[in-house]
Amino acid sequence: MKRLEGKVAAVTGGSHGIGAAAVRRMAEEEASVAILDCLDDEGESLARNLVSKGLDVAYWHCDVSREQQVKEALDGVADHFGSLNVLVNNAGIAGPNKPTHELTEEEWDSVQNVNVKGVFFCTKHAIPHMKKAGEGSIINLSSIYGLISAPDVPPYHASKGAVRLMTKTDAMLYAPDRIRANSIHPGFIWTPMVEGHLKSTGEDLEEAKRATAALHPLGHMGEPDDIAWGIVYLASDESRFMTGSELVIDGGYTAH
Ligand code: NAP
């Protein structure tokens, strides 16, 4: 298929989980795709694997919480592929699973530095390239926890709420430049992040998986591809009239 023919996309946190699925599906739809991550071995190996299948993918080391690294990586992507049309702000961390009154300032900041400031830095340094290209699509990974909350991981929920509104602000700011911005709100998707989060509860992992699956009316957790297909849609011109919106892909979690 050629749903993304001619597009150049950068995916932060693209080495594994949802990001890796997005890289694979976008490349299969004929986008040129840059993987930005700190997991160099996994990212380079994913890029090699996809290149061996004839797809146009390359890897850049980039910690999204470091502005200079973000600027250098995105400028490098635009140089290498000739432009930048799509930014998937996917890198994120769950952070410490403690109640608010036990959190330290450092723990709070560590989550905001990646989940909020990282989205700011990447958007800031992608915009000039998108303006030059005359169009763009920014896809921000918020969460069901940017819409509703839960009695755990306070810095994470705060960060995902922030990302939801940053998306709407940027949608309005850059609409005149034909740059769209939308947020995606996944339910629980089985990835290393969710595995780590469920282990942090101290419960039996299999029991925690069953209980988490049961929170979704469809009766199971999602897979990375469930979100990757939403990312392909938002990256493509099929969604050309969509900006400032929330794409909820959650097995019915927020329908309660
Ligand atoms: P994941 O499996 O942990 O993958 C996230 C990727 O981002 C990892 O490769 C991670 O590398 C990377 N990363 C972390 N900090 C980074 C930084 N400072 N700079 C660059 N890369 C960094 O997570 P996921 O479950 O796929 O989640 C992807 C996004 O979807 C996140 O924003 C998450 O909040 C959101 N989301 C996920 C779910 C879910 O159920 N999985 C639900 C709602 C929303 P390291 O492993 O080295 O940290």
UniProtKB/TrEMBL annotation:
Q: Which GO terms describe its molecular function?
A: glucose 1-dehydrogenase [NAD(P)+] activity
Pfam families annotated for this entry? Answer: adh_short_C2
**What InterPro entries would the database entry show?**
NAD(P)-bd_dom_sf, SDR_fam
Supply the EC number(s).
1.1.1.47
Tell me which UniProt keywords the record has, alphabetically: Oxidoreductase
SUPFAM superfamilies, alphabetized: NAD(P)-binding Rossmann-fold domains (SSF51735)
Kindly indicate whether the keyword Transmembrane belongs to this entry.
Answer: no
> Could you confirm whether the keyword Oxidoreductase appears in this record?
yes
User: Record's family?
Assistant: Belongs to the short-chain dehydrogenases/reductases (SDR) family.
PANTHER family referenced in this protein's UniProt entry, alphabetically: DEHYDROGENASES, SHORT CHAIN (PTHR24321), ESTRADIOL 17-BETA-DEHYDROGENASE 8-RELATED (PTHR24321:SF8)
This chain belongs to which protein, by name?
Glucose 1-dehydrogenase
Species whose genome carries this gene = Marinobacter albus
